[in-house]
Write a structure and sequence with these properties.
alpha/beta; Aspartate Aminotransferase, domain 2; Aspartate Aminotransferase, domain 1; eight-stranded mixed β-sheet; 13 helices; globular; PLP-dependent transferase; transferase
Length: 462
């Protein structure tokens, strides 16, 4: 691709794809969406001396809330020797922040939290402002991935999806009548060989897919984390075939594999990997979430990627729900910017959360082996991130259909899991099952695996 913009940073030169490139990626809906006649003028209210009669904002005198304080656990101590503390810390919103949180605010998010996320992407992924990308906050990453799909795909478009794929996006693609092209994945993540084969054999009479959807860390449902080599090969294919990668990564911070082998994100890799030297950045739309590491109920997700696409997502928000919830954003910003937390405290916190789930994974796998593995009733690969085990029931109702077994025999035995068919766009039969290990204690896990093994034997007996 030619005519790239160049940005001189302290640590090197970055080339970004020109904004005109994204015209071909944006959907007809995104390109035809009119700007909000009110919200598009909001920034002008900050003009010095301006008297605004613009928006129908409620008078703050009508709000009954006068202060907001909460307590939170401090993050664990750092490796330099600061001791771990279990003491709660008190956090209060300033009068100004509370007033801003209670009022209509910027479409892309609470400014203090937006700034904090920009800094996080710098600390974690090595991405700086001024590289042709921007970010926006949403009501959870599901809100943002839904809007991204609408912004990038027209009805009937083909879309490449890692398979098995997160069940929550299948209805989104289906509602647009998109042709979901499954790219197989294994314990090392999405298969670059399968992706290459699909792209190279694509019929010349039909337009190639322009979007690849993948969950590279702790993939839902498989728990697989894509290796560095796979990521390098997929990113190279994205460049060769003019693809945009939707990197849906809610389990990035729940990695508990060997730290020495932790792969970088696609968002980081397109900027820093030596194999990408001389290549323009701008092929990754990254989604992060605080749901798994801070609180699911806060409903805070963030999307980072090429500015034209982020603007299209913001335009959708401006007409759909105006903005993400102000108060929950202000709560998160107050905690993250508190002296005890900050970015280093957040990273220590997520490390402790990952350790929690590693211990739960180990307990689950021991019970899985004890009740199903040793008798050859199931097989699996050990997840290195996330919340799920993805295992194949060897005698799934005699014909490889885990859905029939889970919905009848397992239910009758008093255990629930998700049959693998719900993670396959075409809904075909499969012997796989997804089980979440995030909540249950050791005794409940053991009993659940015992009941599931009995259900498999019941099915085999018939």
């Amino acid at each position: 691709m030619t005519n790239c913009f160049s940005f001189a940073l302290n640590y090197g030169l970055v080339e970004s794809l020109p904004e005109s490139v994204y015209t071909n990626f944006l959907s007809d809906v995104a390109k035809s969406r009119l700007p909000s006649p009110i919200r598009s003028l909001f920034p002008l209210e900050a003009t010095p001396g301006m008297i605004s009669l613009l928006a129908g904002k409620p008078n703050p005198a009508s709000f009954p809330f006068t202060s907001f304080s909460f307590t939170a656990r401090a993050p664990p101590g750092d490796p330099s020797g600061v001791p771990r503390t279990e003491e709660d810390i008190a956090v209060s919103l300033s009068n100004a922040d509370l007033a801003a949180a209670l009022q209509y605010g910027p479409t892309n998010g609470f400014p203090a939290l937006v700034d904090w996320f920009y800094q996080l992407q710098s600390v974690v992924h090595g991405r700086e402002r001024g590289e042709g990308w921007s970010l926006s906050i949403g009501n959870g990453s599901q809100d943002l991935v839904s809007k991204a799909i609408v912004a990038l795909l027209n009805p009937g478009d083909p879309v490449l999806v890692q398979s098995p794929v997160y069940a929550g996006v299948i209805p989104l693609f289906h509602s647009l009548q998109c042709k979901q092209i499954e790219v197989e994945a294994d314990a090392d993540g999405i298969s670059s060989d399968a992706l290459r084969s699909i792209l190279e054999q694509w019929p010349t009479s039909s337009p190639k897919p322009k979007i690849l959807y993948t969950i590279p860390y702790g993939g839902n449902p498989t728990g697989a984390t894509a290796s560095i080599q796979r990521r390098q090969e997929v990113l190279a294919l994205a460049r060769d075939h003019n693809l945009l990668i939707i990197e849906d990564d809610p389990y990035y911070y729940l990695y508990f594999g060997p730290s020495a082998s932790r792969p970088p994100s696609y968002f980081a890799m397109e900027r820093s990997d030596p194999s990408c030297d001389g290549q323009a950045v701008g092929r990754v739309l990254r989604l992060d979430s605080l749901s798994k590491v801070l609180s699911a109920g806060l409903r805070i997700g963030v999307v980072s990627g090429p500015s034209p696409i982020i603007r299209a997502i913001d335009a959708h928000t401006a007409t759909a729900n105006l903005q993400p919830a102000g108060l929950t954003q202000a709560v998160a910003a107050a905690l993250m910017n508190s002296p005890t937390w900050g970015h280093s405290g957040f990273l220590r916190h997520v490390d402790s959360v990952a350790s929690l789930y590693k211990a739960k994974r180990d307990v689950f796998e021991e019970a899985l082996q004890r009740h199903l593995g040793k008798d050859g009733l199931a097989e699996w690969s050990t997840p290195q991130a996330g919340l799920f085990f993805w295992f194949r029931l060897i005698a799934a109702d005699g014909d490889g259909d885990s859905a029939a077994l889970v919905r009848t025999k397992a239910f009758e035995r008093g255990v629930l899991a998700l049959p693998g068919t719900v993670f396959l766009p075409d809904g075909r039969k499969t012997g796989y099952v997804r089980a979440a290990f995030s909540l249950l204690g050791p005794e409940e896990v053991d009993e659940a695996m015992k009941r599931l093994a009995q259900a498999v034997r019941d099915a085999a007996a018939q």
